[in-house]
């Protein structure tokens, strides 16, 4: 593992820097990516600093990406944030630069890159970027930088409801607020859903399978998304919804993709579920992970495995 000082030293060596993050970005992926880019642009105006990846339609209020050409990678420093493993990087050219740095808060299952900082105790990658900025006189935490990082922290802490929220997290956020960011506006943007998404929440409750153990499964198929006029990205907005039910301890949300496979979202309020995700082409945090299922049989198999995980957790009185 490398120090913040070593990361800054490497950044200073390069005139071109491309900052990437994971596919299907959430607020933390975009917040850490663009927050870091903004801090570097402010500190090094003569460097060419770009953010790459596909735009997230529902998060364009937060950030949009630059056009990154093949030539931009030539001789460039590439920094991947909030991305645990290379298959999830949202640009297959990530290894075409001169040097690669990984900055992340997920379990370090793939220690890629010539340098890396991984802090699994951090609430979010945005919190790590805030700490990186605070560690050096080279970078400055400004109001514009704090805007992105605040959105990232709020997103990955579930508005400070998740156990990863620490006193340090709140101290960092307090610094952001002292800079005058429009935190209420950010919160409103993150809280807002469309009528179709609200209807999806209702459908989800109707379809939700809740086992007596406290494990639950919701399947959002292509027919339902077509009926409501929503895409897969908007369907992901209800991933936290089952956790509002008293009877639910851990849950799976299966969102069908165009190729008829399923993107699996795993969430938990106690039992560790990232090992289950790893067994099904995924991974992530102990209480929040993602995986893939090739068909409904695999979806149902994952649900059976989740039931056993929850039963085992409760039998131990954890």
UniProtKB/TrEMBL annotation:
<dbReference type="InterPro" id="IPR003156">
    <property type="entry name" value="DHHA1_dom"/>
</dbReference>
<protein>
    <submittedName>
        <fullName>DHH family phosphoesterase</fullName>
    </submittedName>
</protein>
<dbReference type="InterPro" id="IPR051319">
    <property type="entry name" value="Oligoribo/pAp-PDE_c-di-AMP_PDE"/>
</dbReference>
<dbReference type="InterPro" id="IPR001667">
    <property type="entry name" value="DDH_dom"/>
</dbReference>
<feature type="domain" description="DHHA1">
    <location>
        <begin position="227"/>
        <end position="311"/>
    </location>
</feature>
<feature type="domain" description="DDH">
    <location>
        <begin position="16"/>
        <end position="153"/>
    </location>
</feature>
<dbReference type="GO" id="GO:0003676">
    <property type="term" value="F:nucleic acid binding"/>
</dbReference>
<dbReference type="Pfam" id="PF01368">
    <property type="entry name" value="DHH"/>
</dbReference>
<dbReference type="Pfam" id="PF02272">
    <property type="entry name" value="DHHA1"/>
</dbReference>
<dbReference type="InterPro" id="IPR038763">
    <property type="entry name" value="DHH_sf"/>
</dbReference>
């Amino acid at each position: 593992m490398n120090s913040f000082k070593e990361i800054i030293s490497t950044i200073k060596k390069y005139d071109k820097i491309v900052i990437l993050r994971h596919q299907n970005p959430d607020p933390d992926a975009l917040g850490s990516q663009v927050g870091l880019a903004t801090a570097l642009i402010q500190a090094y105006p003569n460097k060419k600093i770009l953010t790459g990846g596909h735009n997230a339609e529902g998060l364009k209020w937060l950030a949009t990406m630059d056009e990154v050409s093949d030539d931009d990678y030539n001789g460039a420093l590439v920094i991947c944030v909030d991305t645990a493993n290379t298959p999830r990087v949202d640009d297959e050219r990530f290894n075409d630069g001169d040097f690669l740095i990984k900055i992340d808060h997920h379990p370090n299952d793939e220690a890629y890159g010539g340098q890396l900082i991984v802090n699994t105790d951090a609430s979010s990658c945005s919190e790590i970027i805030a700490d990186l900025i605070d560690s050096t006189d080279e970078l400055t935490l400004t109001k514009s930088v704090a805007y992105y990082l605040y959105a990232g922290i709020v997103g990955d802490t579930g508005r400070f409801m998740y156990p990863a929220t620490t006193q340090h997290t709140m101290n960092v956020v307090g610094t952001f607020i002292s800079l005058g960011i429009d935190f209420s506006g950010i919160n409103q943007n993150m809280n807002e859903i469309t009528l179709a998404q609200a209807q999806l929440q209702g459908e989800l409750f109707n379809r939700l399978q809740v086992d007596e153990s406290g494990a639950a499964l919701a399947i959002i198929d292509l027919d339902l998304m077509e009926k409501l006029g929503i895409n897969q990205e908007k369907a992901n907005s209800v991933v936290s919804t089952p956790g509002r039910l008293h009877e639910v301890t851990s849950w799976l949300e299966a969102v069908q993709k165009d190729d008829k496979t399923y993107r699996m979202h795993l969430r938990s309020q106690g039992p560790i579920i990232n090992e289950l995700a790893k067994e099904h082409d995924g991974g992530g945090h102990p209480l929040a992970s993602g995986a893939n299922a090739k068909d409904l049989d695999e979806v149902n198999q994952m649900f059976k495995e989740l039931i056993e995980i929850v039963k085992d957790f409760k039998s131990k009185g954890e």
